[in-house]
Amino acid sequence: MIPSDDAKLTAFGLLMEVHAGLVGKMTPAFTAAGLSGVDFETLIRLARSPERQLRMSDLAAQTSLSTSGVTRVVDRLEREGLVRRVACASDRRASYATLTDAGVERLEVVVPRHLEDIETWFTGLLSPAQLETLLDTLRILRDVVRPCATAGAEVPGEVTRPRS
């Protein structure tokens, strides 16, 4: 028998509902800027990384993409002039995805609306204490289920916790 009152099922179901709802609320801003959600995720990860670049393997680890998936996204963004690929000087097998000035300009168009959407549909609904608790909780979960999610990046405001 499937339990109808199991808190674990409820918690996961609520998380999925919130994720789907937030994606639906955020998508119009991305679309208006000529971006998909994965395009935005790729560009914002690069923008928030040292020197606006990441090794392709680190970019794949940080996003929801496989290495071949991130290659396709970077290829498309490169054709649009938003990203360029730079060979790694010390490792011929590696390359970096680097955000271009045009990529920064595209983000400057979409980020203000995206921040408004985040405030309206997410963080603005929480008290400062609730938001801090949520951030702490999400980092705990992320570090377990996606341990490479910050590969190659310095994460502002985050303290690296020793893994046990």
UniProtKB/TrEMBL annotation:
Domain HTH marR-type stretches: 8-143
Keywords: DNA-binding
Alphabetized InterPro entries for the sequence: HTH_MarR-typ, MarR/SlyA-like, WH-like_DNA-bd_sf, WH_DNA-bd_sf
BP-aspect Gene Ontology terms: response to stress
Pfam families cross-referenced by the UniProt entry: MarR_2 (PF12802)
Gene Ontology molecular function, alphabetical: DNA binding; DNA-binding transcription factor activity
Domain of life according to the entry: Bacteria
The protein's name: DNA-binding MarR family transcriptional regulator
Organism field: Sphaerisporangium krabiense
